[in-house]
Amino acid sequence: MLGMYLRNALPDHQLSPETKDSVRVGMGLVATMTALLLGLLVASAKGLYDARRKEVVHLGGALNFLDHLLTFYGPEAAEAGELLRGLNESLIKQLWPDKQVQKAETDLVDSPFRALYSTISKMAPDNDVQRAAKAKALETTEDLSKTHLLLYAMGDTSIASPVLVIVILWLTTLFISFGLFAPMNWTAIGSMFIAALSVSSAIFLIMDLDRPFEGVIQISDAPLRNVLNRRGPRKFSSIDSFELTEKMH
């Protein structure tokens, strides 16, 4: 609409065919650079989203395996099992904070990690199987802590604000040039509005992928909640025990 207004304000000799060709060549270059930068932004946001999703799945698998280990160890690991449940809840609160509550501090999760590791370290195994289970439980707890710190160290965003501002300015310039030579009718206005809406949706998608724990396309917390929602102690069959023992070795 701004481009259409400028066209009406400019004298006719400023809108000659030669001028139109010059503007189109320049805007073609801007459009090419914008497309390249948009592609880089999509790749960066998608890469961050996939990396964090992979880490969340890894967290869920490690929590589930550690829960199996503690159940397999026996009643002596009941305290560690309760601490593991508390750790699971703390992870969910930190990664998927309530909209009306500020994001949880890292100490909310670090303290349960320390308590869990300390409790497992104090367990006194009576046989080789329990000793193997304890060693693997400590190793898995360390792995969980490393994965959590990696998620926290990734930061909140992978897209620099100046880059996003530059892309929006380039797109604004392009649409002004479109309106500069477009006829003033509802068909032209409607088509440009749909085009602007489509490009805006792409930018929204980029920004949403860059916030994988808050946006519309957020990472599911199912891998962690599936472990949290398990009810009652798990009973292992002889086959389960054999498979778990093989994994520990």
Annotate the secondary structure layout.
Elements: H1 2-9, H2 17-73, H3 78-95, H4 107-122, H5 128-153, H6 161-180, H7 186-209, H8 222-228, H9 238-248
The SSE order reads HHHHHHHHH
Mean pLDDT: 81
Number of strands: 0
Tally of helical runs: 9
Shape: rod-shaped
Strand content: under 5%
Low-confidence stretches: 99-104, 231-245
Structural category is mainly alpha
Radius of gyration over all CA atoms, rounded: 28 Å
Helix content: over 70%
* Distance from first to last alpha carbon: 70 Å
Sheet having the most strands: none
How would you describe what is shown here?
- The protein is built from 9 helices and no strands.
- It has helices at about 1-10, 15-75, 80-95, 105-120, 130-155, 160-180, 185-210, 220-230, 240-249.
- The longest helix has about 55 residues, at about 15-75.
- The radius of gyration is 28 Å and the shape is rod-shaped.
